[in-house]
């Protein structure tokens, strides 16, 4: 069972399900098109915590619950943890018999690339993907594989809990961290350091003193950068639903990338009511 992360966890699920319903309403009128739902970190199907006396349904099961105006033609759930994979598979087999749902134990990165290949070979398919990763586990090359395809991608970006923690204040970032930043952002370390740090030189009695400073509003700057990076792959990127913890610190940016202008408007409309959280 997965853990409940607070009000923003519920809001995130509501955003995805709300968008999926609007998406299926539109796609039900496109009689030529088949629909694919892809979840790269599907979990066990249930979420529980001390705040709930009973476990609640996770995003995967909520998406499977949608029957009107139509269900998806294919559901593809990826889960790397064997226990979670078996739990989700069992729930689908018992409660969602007849739906074309597949639960695969695999790494999300490889399956994103497989999905891109599938969409390239099956032009009548349109996909809605939800990527809710564990940390910075989604590599940029996996996102890059989706370029030019008929896919709407919702992705949770660990701006505060992930990227910011690797950007040390003094710029002395360990080599493994730099490699992770390069893989996650799809940028060279030189580009990363230039974007997130500034150099200041001060004239003193003892000569010039140079200091390196981490940029201000760094987490928002990370969110802006990821939006810019997505725009090199997709035509449009939604506003972000910014998730904060109890101390009001930013943890994640949640956004949708698409090649469809109408989809962009729907995504922003779904996100907007959540800004108050």
From TrEMBL:
Origin organism lineage: Bacteria, Pseudomonadati, Bacteroidota, Sphingobacteriia, Sphingobacteriales
Listed InterPro entries: Tcm_partner (IPR031009)
Organism listed in the record: Mucilaginibacter ginsenosidivorans
Domain of life: Bacteria
Protein's UniProt name: Three-Cys-motif partner protein TcmP
